[in-house]
């Protein structure tokens, strides 16, 4: 017998409600990932959805809710560990909420390019925009569309009219300095990242603050660009000063510094203590496992998405900063008490 698609009756929300023994409104709440549903009821509804093969009409939902269920993400397109992990964390967190991430990556790390990317996403009708860009100077012209669309920035200095979710740079750096000073080092030198990055200035400020609070001298900063090669080159310059302790702005540059130490026959940690930042997966597998700072990037990105979704749902006006999340110093084998 020939069956036409028009004759096939697809399951409806009412059918799901009848099967689960709940009201259709409850099914709607579950489908829309609303929070005011108990776990047991949510499980019962999801079971009924699976048994019936019910598929929500997303187009109708979007028209009714005036939402696209798409979240825009503007991110620096870089293979560096920090930016790539931030982008991954944001996309996974958006998908966790049953939403679709729409990503635009920037190449030049240019405020004008970031501005254009945000504008394009807003023109596409996204419900909100997450901006994961490292540059400091992100001053945008007043734009009525920006005022009407929720925007949350991650890691960089906050956009006007947006909330900021930051990783625990200050907390992590203070732990580094306190650890090294507790090992009798008179001061801590710093090998910093790229000069125009928010993460660079934040690390420098926290490092300087921690040293000044302890009454220690603040040595001149040596800059790299986050890569192992720059850590090596800048490390050769820094090691000429004969420091006993160095805080490196990320693990990749710390690896470059360790190579420079090896070539200059400077023993780590006997002659020099080294601490990185990021806790790369390979940090613990180096010949001398690296002491470094671990930040839960996935958790921070999930909180950024949560902040944005609160604004999307109710467009609440949030303050521009949120409490910093704790970082953890992972003490391994590249730090030791200063030799006398």
UniProtKB/TrEMBL annotation:
Pfam families: LacI, Peripla_BP_3. GO terms for molecular function: DNA-binding transcription factor activity; transcription cis-regulatory region binding. InterPro entries: HTH_LacI (IPR000843), LacI/GalR-like_sensor (IPR046335), Lambda_DNA-bd_dom_sf (IPR010982), Peripla_BP_I (IPR028082). Keywords: DNA-binding, Transcription, Transcription regulation. SUPFAM superfamilies: lambda repressor-like DNA-binding domains, Periplasmic binding protein-like I. SMART domains: HTH_LACI. Residues 11-65 form the HTH lacI-type domain. PROSITE patterns: HTH_LACI_2. This is LacI family transcriptional regulator. It comes from Microbacterium sorbitolivorans.
